[in-house]
Q: What sequence folds into this?
């Protein structure tokens, strides 16, 4: 893949998200109240870097805890706009073919996103959105020697499920997916040109912390 | 609104397929073996413990050297730490004779005012180190200014630490820190590529027992 190919793909993702927002008409009145929720879960991340020095190896982020705070702003039913702040923290390691795992450092990944959510039947909901993502390494070492790199755009999609009994308690199960490009300044110095597209999947339990009173 | 699932699928599929990134050049700039055998500190011996002579500026030079070598690695291959006790060290760096004055190093043209020696000692099997790696630094040209001597010591410690990491050969390029006589102040791209390859090559020489 040439470097010029990737911006095109990002455009595809962002155009779709833009279309989604345009298709949800602005509300003439609020159909529900704004609410604040938090979710806690576990997140899997695909390979950050694949390289080969004598033999191939991968740099991966282990399964890491993920914490999300979301403000839901009601639009015209059944639509909701979610503004989310998400943090996950995990160990970055090298995984050799021989099975050796070499720790590099720990990293916090922060994202700020906006998504459009639609309530579906039977307690399900689906959302899609976009946002910004940043890697904040615990130490400036290895692939993070010169920092975590710039803030990058990301695309996100989620599926939620709230069983009838859980609705009243504000509980829901969530599966969230997002993707972004990963390339640090140290990797660029090493000779990497293209970002690795990193896919992340999180499973979480969401709990409503606060709900605004009716107008 | 009913197109939401389709739009999500298109948005996700549009960015999901990608070609892998191309690996960069990892060709070493010089050989690092010791008569065909290879040594580097294995993963289970990190962090490598360095003891630096407590006199003069040796601790400063060794700490700088460890930091600079650590920075050459991207993937967690090497870590080093200074320890206060030589009996618990993997690498011992001392002054061979006189202790040069601790002054800011001269940043001008380099002068070969000092010499370093690094000696790996093998056990009877010949395929394992018997004890810590010993490095010593000596004054070669007493007519050099203290600042010129400090600059020579600083870059020679860095060069000798390269040997202690397992770079057992000299480079022929004068722009590399592992040149027979080090003229530069930091590892260069060729040093970085070489030490990277060394640390991904299966070693045939075992580290000393702890
Ligand atoms: Zn040498």
A:
């Amino acid at each position: 893949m040439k470097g010029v190919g990737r911006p095109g793909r990002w455009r595809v993702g962002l155009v779709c998200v833009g279309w989604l927002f345009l298709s949800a008409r602005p509300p003439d009145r609020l159909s529900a109240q704004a609410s604040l929720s938090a979710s806690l879960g576990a997140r899997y991340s695909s390979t950050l870097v694949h390289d080969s020095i004598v033999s191939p190896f991968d740099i991966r982020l282990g399964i890491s805890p993920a914490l999300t705070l979301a403000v839901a702003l009601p639009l015209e039913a059944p639509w909701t706009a979610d503004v989310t702040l998400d943090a996950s923290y995990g160990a970055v390691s090298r995984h050799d073919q021989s099975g050796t795992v070499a720790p590099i450092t720990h990293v916090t990944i922060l994202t700020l996103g906006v998504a459009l959510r639609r309530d579906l039947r039977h307690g399900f909901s689906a959302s899609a959105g976009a946002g910004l993502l940043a890697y904040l390494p615990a130490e400036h070492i290895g692939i993070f020697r010169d920092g975590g790199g710039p803030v990058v755009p990301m695309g996100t999609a989620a599926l939620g499920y709230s069983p009838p009994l859980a609705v009243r308690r504000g509980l829901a199960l969530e599966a969230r997916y997002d993707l972004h490009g990963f390339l640090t300044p140290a990797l660029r110095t090493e000779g990497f040109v293209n970002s690795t597209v990193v896919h992340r999947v999180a499973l979480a339990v969401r709990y409503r912390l606060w709900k605004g009173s009716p107008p | 609104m009913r197109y939401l699932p389709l739009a999500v699928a298109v948005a996700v599929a549009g960015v999901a397929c990608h070609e892998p990134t191309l690996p960069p050049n990892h060709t070493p700039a010089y050989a690092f073996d010791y008569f065909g055998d290879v040594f580097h500190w294995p993963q289970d011996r990190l962090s490598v413990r360095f003891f630096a002579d407590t006199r003069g500026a040796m601790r400063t030079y060794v700490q700088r050297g460890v930091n600079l070598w650590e920075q050459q690695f991207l993937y967690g291959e090497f870590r080093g730490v200074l320890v206060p006790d030589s009996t618990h060290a993997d690498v011992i760096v001392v002054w061979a004779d006189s202790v040069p004055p601790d002054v800011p190093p001269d940043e001008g043209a380099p002068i070969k005012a000092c010499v370093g020696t690094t000696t790996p000692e093998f056990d009877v099997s010949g395929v394992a180190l018997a004890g810590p790696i010993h490095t010593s630094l000596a004054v070669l040209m007493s007519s050099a200014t203290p600042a010129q001597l400090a600059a020579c010591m600083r870059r020679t410690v860095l060069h000798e630490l390269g040997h202690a990491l397992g770079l057992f050969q000299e480079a022929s390029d004068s722009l590399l820190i592992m040149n027979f006589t080090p003229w530069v102040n930091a590892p260069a791209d060729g040093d970085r590529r070489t030490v990277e390859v060394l640390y991904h090559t299966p070693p045939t020489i075992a580290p000393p027992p702890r």
Notes: The radius of gyration of chain B is 22 Å. Residues 146-165 of chain B form the longest helix (20 residues). Residues 4-20 of chain B have pLDDT under 50 and may be disordered. Residues 47 and 208 of chain B are 14 Å apart (CA to CA).
